[in-house]
Amino acid sequence: MCGIVGYIGNRNCLGLIIDGLKRLEYRGYDSAGVAILDKNNDINIYKKKGKVKELESEFNIEDLSGHTGIGHTRWATHGEPNDINAHPQTDMSGNIAVVHNGIIENFKTLKKKLEKENYKFVSDTDTEVLANLIQYHFKQNNNFETAVRYALSEVEGAYGIAVLNRSVPDKIIIARNGSPLMFGLGKDEIIVSSDAAAIINVTKNVIYLEDGEIAVLKYDSFQIKTITDEDIFREVQRIDYDIEEIEKGGFEHFMLKEICEQPDAIQNTYRGRINFQTGDVKLGGLETVKDKLFNAKRIIITACGTAWHAALVGEYMFEEYCRIPTEVEYASEFRYKNPIINKDDVIIFISQSGETADTMAALKEAKRLGATTIGIVNAVGSSIARAVDAGTYIHAGPEIGVASTKAFTCQLMSLVLITLMIGKNKGTISDENLMEIAAELKLIPEKIREIIERKNDFKFIAEEFKDSRNFLYLGRGLNFPVALEGALKLKEISYIHAEGYPAAEMKHGPIALIDENMPVVFIAPKDSTYDKIISNIEEIKARKGKIITVATQDDNEINNYSDYIMRVPKTLPIFSPILNSIPLQFLSYYIATARGCNVDQPRNLAKSVTVE
Ligand code: G6P
What is the CATH T-level fold of the domain 454-598, as seen in this structure? Predict the structure, then answer.
């Protein structure tokens, strides 16, 4: 969602902050701004609606020198995206500048209280209220840290903040509650960010702030406390990826790069975790909850967006191969439905970013109700990864494109590993079947490479359909969630309306939409659902819909039913969602680029949604 960068140290910081903001733009991007303390201890603020490069064109970097500053990319929650509502926000005297991710839920009450004290406001933001509240307390007690703590103790809601105070120019104060924040320790410099992507070209040594904590940062030292003023000791952690991993590496877009990285990413998900001869799986992060998982009476999987589609595939896998009743919940619904949770329930949280506010809120609720919680997360050290009882990282590497691709298929691979682990223990998968699955698993990266090599075929189909106004995606069984994910990818980045449906359910409604202008994408693997899928295709053909199929390499029969075919290698059913997803990722990518859309930063979307 929004991104924060801050710096205090020995370098001129504007360039560093701008560079960091650009790396965070994938999280949210309707406006951007910086506040730099200059040598006269004046706070210089530049902010602008639009992307960071529009902000950059506002000023000459050379003109603005200063060694302490904060910056922000915004994804609007309160107040429309414009120059005034962009962050940093200041108090009315211009003494305090604040950048803020999250939402202050009681900001109207706080605003009224300050208005009574004659505070005036120029923006519609909750953040401006916080800046004034800090100044209000600073006036009372003349201590910067105390002022921030007192202000935050009045605040309800979620925040990650960084604060500058021109009266205390040797410090930046940061605090977090529900919105990620960390700082990197360089030599005589500290860089703050809401995401490690903005830190790693300065240092790989980071400290993650936890909820309810505040840190006072000087260029050569720091102190962490709770908002209630208790000292905290926190270990420094090493970030485990390089700057090259989050750059485009010659690809036109991050999304394309990430689609093409899937063979390696998937391999990283299973590397060292499975014995290819026997199918034995060992997931170190789940050791402590293994027995709970094996004895679970029920598994609930909860997530948002693409991760929720992975969860739906997980449901099929756990029920089919482990015989454990499994339910999937939208994380945003979970905690508001008064869920019935028993102590033998295991709840799995899937999240690429590990920061999604709805998933985090569901996790808190699950913990409160006493369930065993497990994470399937990509971002190492993220809030969800740290809060669950146990977890497994998918190791997809940083995913920057807003539309999730490699994280999705790696989530599916993690679910396969967990399925095999449970199935073996419970005896619901035979040894023979385990061995067969393990042998096939090893071939999956190569099979993905084969699909990637066909990308020009997918591009050709995309060109044919780039002007369509609607799309329907249909699949059955394990591939029904793949249909949902295909439709989501298309609407996210090309703004074409698309719906995913279980193929058979189509005749109960969506069939009314079919005419010669409606492209229908069928996921048609040669498995037990094949004949039924063919019947569904016939139903569409009879109504003149255009048929695009995702079909198995050696399936010639499908030629009779398809207008266009996207081929994937043959595989076992458990892996078919992984392979079948990839042509659909390419299809949406090429349709979106043919339409001139910004695929990495689609309108209104954010990579990591840290508000509920
Ligand atoms: C946002 C992103 C989606 C993502 C969802 C869940 O909506 O745009 O691509 O699937 O959040 O994110 P998570 O990081 O929890 O997987």
Answer: Rossmann fold (3.40.50)
